[in-house]
Amino acid sequence: MQKQQTLQEGDKLPNLEVSEGEPGSKFYIGEVFAKGKGVLFAVPGAFTPGCDKKHLPGYVENYSKFIEKGITTIACLSVNDAFVMDAWGKHQGADGKIRMFADADGEFTKAIDMQLDLTNVLGNVRSKRYAMYIQDGVVKKLLVESDGTGLSCSLAVELLKHI
C-alpha cells in the first residue's frame, strides 16, 4: 500500500490499481496518464443527484472542447464497484468519451488523501469531488471542492479554463 500524501500540483500521479468495466479488469491508473494530456475527475457516488445531473454530464457535453485542447484521456473515478461505474457511464452516454474508473477499495483515493467520510449518507468512505489536468503523469492543475461535495470548481467548464 502506498503512503498517504495529499496530492498537489506538480506531483506525479500515483500508480495504483483501479478497474473499469468489471472488477477483474484491473490496471494502473498512473500508466493511463503517463504520456500526453489527460483529465481525471472524481465524484462521491455514481447515480447520486449532483454527480448524475451535473458533474458527469458536463464532461460528456464538453468532450469535444477537451479534445480540441489536446486531451487524449478523460476519466471519471469513484469509490464504487466497476459494474456500477460501467452502468452509470452507459446511462450518461459516456461510452467512447469518458472512461469510468472504479476505485472499489478506495486505495487510490486514500493514497492522494481525497477520502470523504459519507458513511451516514452513502454507507462508506467515498472520494471528495475534484478535477485535475495531468500532463505526462504530472498533475498540472488540481481543483478540489472546498467541502468535498460541492459543484463549482471541479466542473468541466471550470477545468477547461486551466488547460
Secondary structure layout:
Blueprint: E1 17-20, E2 22-28, H1 29-32, E3 37-42, H2 49-61, H3 63-68, E4 71-78, H4 82-91, E5 99-102, H5 107-111, E6 115-117, H6 119-122, E7 125-127, E8 130-135, E9 138-144, H7 156-160
Parallel strand pairs: 3-4, 4-5
Antiparallel strand pairs: 1-2, 3-8, 6-7, 8-9
Active site: 51
Organism: Dimorphilus gyrociliatus
EC number: 1.11.1.24
Quick summary of this structure?
The chain is α/β, with parallel strands linked by helices and 163 residues long. It has helices spanning 29-32, 49-61, 63-68, 82-91, 107-111, 119-122, 156-160; strands at residues 17-20, 22-28, 37-42, 71-78, 99-102, 115-117, 125-127, 130-135, 138-144. It is built from 7 helices and 9 strands.
